[in-house]
Amino acid sequence: MATHPATGRAGSGGRVLTGTRIRCQPRLRPAGWWVEAVLAVGFAALTVLLARPGPLTALDRWLRDLSDAHRPPAAYWLARAVNLLGNGGWVMSVVLLLAVLLAVRRRTVRPLLPPLAAAVASGVVLTVLKRVTARPAPHYFGPVPAFTVPGQESYPSGHLVNAVVWYGIAAALLAPYLPATARRLLRAGPPVLVCCSTIYLGFHWFSDDLAGLLLGALIYRVVCRVGWSSIPLPDLLERRPQPPERYWP
């Protein structure tokens, strides 16, 4: 629970929340910025390792071949259904709709700020990285390392980034209405299921998913660190004075 410096107005005509206690603010554990540093370094190191054949690419190929050899129709369609949990289009739309409902209920656009920031950050970062790394997908049946086939965009897994970022943001927005156990399941369950489904279906290499987990966790933590609750807003975007104790963001 965080407390910000009584409600006043910014010099530009916007309202800034002061003396406001923010409830249900996302708690990042561990809390230090060193976690983001580890995630970034881990992603960079993984990318370097994938630039040439090695044990990691051998593991990727082995898991692909194992999955291809054990994929009966029933399991295939079940995995396809599970894989939809990582579809960025509809997951992002649902979270944005949730944020809109909260914004209307609270008469402030603040609930929209974290998901909009997450959408921009994940979209830009994924687009750039996928094009630069140029890694073919498992069923391209060509080279396994990254930086080998221009136009191929398997790395990192966008499904895993979506699962980590969007279900994390959803859990944070729903914190006032869900018990802690349900929030933990919402954050952790979809990424695990999506990871298993993408590997089993051959949509992504294992290392693509690992990179997506690292990158998604990094984006989620950075978005949650921004002081959305204290950003000055004009009256048009926050029509009702906010109570001294309010929910994040």
From TrEMBL:
Keywords: Membrane, Transmembrane, Transmembrane helix. The keyword tRNA-binding does not apply. The chain crosses the membrane at residues 31-51, 84-104, 111-129, 160-178, 185-206. The keyword Transmembrane applies. Pfam families: PAP2. Residues 112-224 form the Phosphatidic acid phosphatase type 2/haloperoxidase domain. PANTHER family: AT30094P (PTHR14969:SF13), SPHINGOSINE-1-PHOSPHATE PHOSPHOHYDROLASE (PTHR14969). This is Phosphatidic acid phosphatase type 2/haloperoxidase domain-containing protein. It comes from Actinocatenispora thailandica.
